[in-house]
Amino acid sequence: MSTTPLIPRTAGPRPGGRSARVQAAIHQAVRELLAEAPRDSLTVPAVATRAGVTPSTIYRRWGDLGQLLADVAVETLRPEATPEDTGSYQGDLLAWLEQYRDEMSSGPGRAMLRDVLGAGTENTGKCALYCTQQLDAIHERAAARGESTLATEAVLDGVVAPMMYRILFAAQAPTNEDVASWLDALLQAPRHST
Amino acid sequence: MSTTPLIPRTAGPRPGGRSARVQAAIHQAVRELLAEAPRDSLTVPAVATRAGVTPSTIYRRWGDLGQLLADVAVETLRPEATPEDTGSYQGDLLAWLEQYRDEMSSGPGRAMLRDVLGAGTENTGKCALYCTQQLDAIHERAAARGESTLATEAVLDGVVAPMMYRILFAAQAPTNEDVASWLDALLQAPRHST
Fold first, then answer.
1. Residue B153 domain boundaries
2. Per UniProt, which keywords does this protein have (chains A, B) (predicted)?
């Protein structure tokens, strides 16, 4: 295993001022239109009209509709809260992993993953970053409690990865029992780090 | 774990006759055009002209360019040979997994994954099926040699899944050392099946 982190722990600065307000209006227009009609019927001109901008503003900033959809999807994936504190490391991990499984294997979760993965690499990195940050937060809370912990990368490889592989590629979605069994195997393996 | 296989082991019947020849001509046109110009510049009319069909033939069969690209990508992912016979189960697994890692993390491999994952579920299922069939073939050869083996699903969860997660989401691609280390952990775990 390498010693540098697989996923950079910091995201870039968020845009501010007028361009941020324009971006927010366009994101909001996409979310509204997605709630009203099938995703296949979405067009750049329709988003522009709803947001009160010209289509060229969208093409200039995002290139095409796919990139815009990926941007909106990854913004929706940004966690809104720190992971639930259940009082123990194993409990925190299981609660967060079950919630993540539930969200990602839902219809809207799959559509977001499709948008993010279809568009390219910057957004997939952000998606992994959010996941890593939540696992890091669980790790730090457990360390503060004095519990022995796993490396975040081990949880990514051992639980998050098979969960996502099944969601993306397999005919059967992963269950909470699968998640619990992958986590058990990991916690029982003789590879704990702190 | 469930007792039904995660990935169906059989693909549907392949189309025959005239429609198969039309499909082959259109696939070939896509591959030629992808070799000549950037993927973003590809259009349905250009593919139609090259293949000698009308654009409506393409729209009727595939719906849109994304579905056609996904179809071509998944056809390219179809394995051309049985996995190399190195003389042992561990050797066969390692050789195939390293080759798969090499192919999937390459530029063309990532582009294919993007096309397949961006388009929807039928093609992702085929992608997983090809992988499962190759692992099954390695499994059966080892069983015929009398070697103890892992369940194919354990190799998918323990090695293929973290490999694909890193290729799709992480900043750093997986290395052959990662693959060997995931496989070692799996072979040492007390969960062998036959």
1. 80-188
2. DNA-binding, Transcription, Transcription regulation
